Amino acid sequence: MRAFASKTSAALAEESRPSASTLGDGLSPRNFELLARYIYDYSGIKMPITKKTMLEGRLRRRLRFVGVDGLNQYCDFLFNGGGIESEAIHLIDVVTTNKTDFFREPAHFDHMTNKALPDLVAQGHRRLRVWSSACSIGAEPYTLAMVMEDYVQAKGGPDYSILATDLSTDVLRVAKRGIFSAAMIEPVDQERRKRYVMEPRDPARGEVRIHPKLRAKVGFARLNLMDTSYGVGDAMQVIFCRNVLIYFDKKTQEKVLTRLCDKLVPGGYLYVGHSETITGFALPVRQVANTVFQRV
Ligand SMILES: C[S@@+](CC[C@H](N)C(=O)[O-])C[C@H]1O[C@@H](n2cnc3c(N)ncnc32)[C@H](O)[C@@H]1O
Q1: Which of 51, 93, 96 to mutate to test the pocket of ligand 1 (most atoms within 8 A of CB)?
Q2: How many angstroms does the Cα of residue 96 sit away from the middle of ligand 1?
Q3: Does CATH place domain 107-295 in 3.40.50.150?
């Protein structure tokens, strides 16, 4: 987007003119490069050449909506026809990977119940703000809401709210509705299902819905972790940033984590995905458990 503004459309048109290598179904090397650079600048997501086939597959979903027949025509529409402004959100929606589960990486939720929440209460916090910063379709923030609600009901407090953000508008739409397939809800144990999940009106549809009382505890918003500062209001006591850092390079990971730490109260907790590491970054945190960190 911004990186291409300095080039004239004629120059770009010349560069993406069909040639022997651009004819056919696949993206031309030049168009792949333009897309990869755009996606990286916009979202931080690395798009190495090894992901070309995956990218092509996902972009094909957009061709019909845009009204073009091929991937290189789609790029022509984006970069030469001024389509990028209106198409950016949809392009990013199709390139993000949204895999998630309820109670994914369950050790984190045990840590919250047994260590982080008692500690935060002992620190004197009466109200906890919890942030799921790459929330996908909502399984993570609704799991957090279940864990928080269990704790609050057992101990009589504290008050809490959950902010759930993501870059993709598609996943946020699903998350807000709080409707999931019965298969997806399976990791939620029976006791919690009774308390927090509503039985379907029409069982044949195989869908369940998160209870309105729990949904009311979770607010959803679009937020790009590439933003230079995060407009999330007061500092958080708990931040989850799981299974998104893996899509970023080291430089981007450190910038994102630095900004997240700025939004964490001293003594607050940061959870990253089990396959993610923050080793080597200059961050104001100390490790307190596997992939769990506390702000100093
Ligand atoms: C694999 S999902 C992880 C979901 C959840 N945190 C979990 O661990 O189950 C990664 C999510 O990160 C989001 N994402 C990717 N780049 C992002 C960015 N720059 N800012 C905010 N969210 C982003 C994607 O849209 C996707 O929903």
Answers
A1: 96
A2: 7
A3: yes
Q: In the chain, what are the domain boundaries? A: 9-95, 107-295
Cα–Cα distance list, 174 to 47, 91, 100, 135, 136 (Å)? 25, 18, 13, 11, 9
The pLDDT value recorded for residue 24 is 52
Residues 6+ apart with CB under 8 A from 34: 4, 16, 75, 78, 79
On whether the pTM is more than 0.85, the answer is yes
* pLDDT for the residue numbered 8: 32
3-state helix, strand, coil in the chain (%, to 5): 45, 20, 35
How far is ligand 1, taken at its centre, from the CA of residue 136, in Å? Answer: 6
Q: Residue 20: its pLDDT value, please? A: 36
